[in-house]
């Protein structure tokens, strides 16, 4: 089904915020909003679900510390339990203080990098990815709201102009 | 954001009449313009220094470490001094972007991008030294625990030098993705402005197809916050681990439990000094005076003052403990009588003057708000912090436990040449960065523009709404829209008007006197006109407003919904009647 969207362009974040609230009140579905910078509270106003990316980071950190412990336990305690400068290599716990710096670093390494990779995958960002903002001004100082159309073009246009949109146009959904 | 409360005591962080578009233009200007003659001159000098350093590195590796001034007693000198110095400088970048983010410091926005760039470039310089100071650098990959054909011969995880490998590589890579992720929206801005196809292509590639969706921003902010939360302990741990190179040894003067926090404080101290050195020049050269203001300089100087104080306390502690320990060996070494009066007295006193005495001048407000003095002071601190590392390393090694192995150190031209080379390399990278990257995180500055911009503060203080004020008539035709709502009268819904007036009471033009409604916070001349048009002239009428009337008013004017209620016009009017 080829669906159409109506695109309203705003030139101020405060106007955008009140517009979002009014469009939501009128029970129209906001398809997407493109902004040049994070407008605080916009996700709440739009009703976006909170992101779970911090939770993934925690899990990746757990993986990191596990890898560090298993690696050092195998190498230092199980594979070659040597005497290096009188350090006790009989059990992991005895020589544990010397392993802490690397356990810590690997936790951070895994938590940070895997989370960033997750972010890039989820938000579909990678080199050679084509930009999808419908208007180039949305990375400068304009805010673009896309609302789904259901044969109510005139009504929606009137509403959007009323909310302070500086430009309203209908386009095919990409 | 219009409803955002900002204490009037706060100084503006963005000066001048800036709109969102102005921020874009100002940040893009150095990237879109051409480099001038001075840039080429400075770049050439840096490049020559870099190439000279590269020659020295190649000479060292091909001939042997013996070309340096090291001897049997002093096995670490300029190499590790420079390594710790560069790592320390890098720390301010992470501190600004991560710690200040956690503390919600808005002033970080204008400086974080360059500070992070400085981090990356100085950690790159630092990373050279662990490689080139090796006797057999071509076997450097043996530090990694890779399964191999020697029966799988592993590394020893007890050594702080191996911890360094993990710390520095984690630090560099995490800083890099943190920096890059923050750059995506700014590269996208450059991409969407680019006119030449080549530039468009490059910035499309660099921006990873960033489109600025609401969901992207939500994730972006969460990722930044979590990365800041991870980078903060990281930055503390990295310099801690670097300090372990010394603190875990048995050398008198090195074996000291104060090192981890003291090194970290010193790192922030020297790092902020380097940020100041660079930004004081950059704000002039790149015309960013409106974004990197006197307030930014002052705040950074305050951080320098704090960390310089911590470092000074650490010096005194070292002094005290060296005496208090009763150990004879401590007496000959770092920060004790032996260091102050021995053959390296000049290095010791250079440290005390540069790190202990000079930064104390920043207690004086006039001096810490002075660009010239901040610049001079920042350079002095960097010299002092180099001497701190040199003193710790060389003085302590020169007089160890056994008098028969006491020795002196003097560098050769290769030692000096490699150090100059890294400074050259640093500036080559930084100068290239300043011409191709958005040096200010414009997307972030735009989020604080309305709360901390000079123009918006003024508007807010005079009781005006900020709604619609950031629009720029160069990018959209707003002249028409504002004219329509300001000078011309608005079309009034008669039914709603009647309802509203019925609730508030009518104004009789012959008998009653109109009040100055502009005295109510939130009502400007335009709003007053509109209210008069509806039939509201007196405080009495306004004071009768309640939620229902506010909503009616909003429905009639169609402007600034909720504004009247938030500002409590009725309450204000009641006070004005008395």
Description:
The complex is a heterodimer of chains A (174) and B (578). With 174 residues, chain A is an alpha+beta fold. Chain A has helices spanning 13-25, 42-46, 53-79, 96-122, 153-162, and strands at 4-10, 30-34, 143-148, 167-172. The model of chain A has no long low-confidence stretch (mean pLDDT 89). Chain B is mainly alpha-helical and 578 residues long. Helix content of chain B is 65%, strand content 0%. Chain B is built from 23 helices and no strands. Chains A and B meet through helix 1, strand 2, helix 2, helix 3 and helix 4 of A and helix 1, helix 5, helix 6, helix 7 and helix 15 of B.
Count the beta strands of chain B. 0
Question: Unreliable runs of chain A, pLDDT <50, ≥5 residues?
Answer: none
Secondary-structure element string of chain B: HHHHHHHHHHHHHHHHHHHHHHH
Q: Briefly note the structural class of the backbone of chain A.
A: alpha+beta
The largest chain-to-chain contact, stated as pair and per-chain residue counts, equals:
A-B, 77 and 85 residues
Radius of gyration of chain B: 31 Å
The proportion of strand residues of chain B reads: under 5%
Q: Count of DSSP E strands of chain A?
A: 4
Shape descriptor of chain A: rod-shaped
Order of helices and strands of chain A: EHEHHHEHE
Globular, elongated, flat, extended or rod-shaped: what is the shape of chain B? elongated
Question: Helical segment tally of chain B?
Answer: 23
The first-to-last residue Cα distance of chain A is: 12 Å
Structure classification of chain B: mainly alpha
**What fraction strand of chain A?**
5-15%
Mean pLDDT of chain A: 89
Uncertain segments of chain B are 478-488
The order of strands across the largest sheet of chain A is 2-3-1-4
Mean pLDDT of chain B: 87
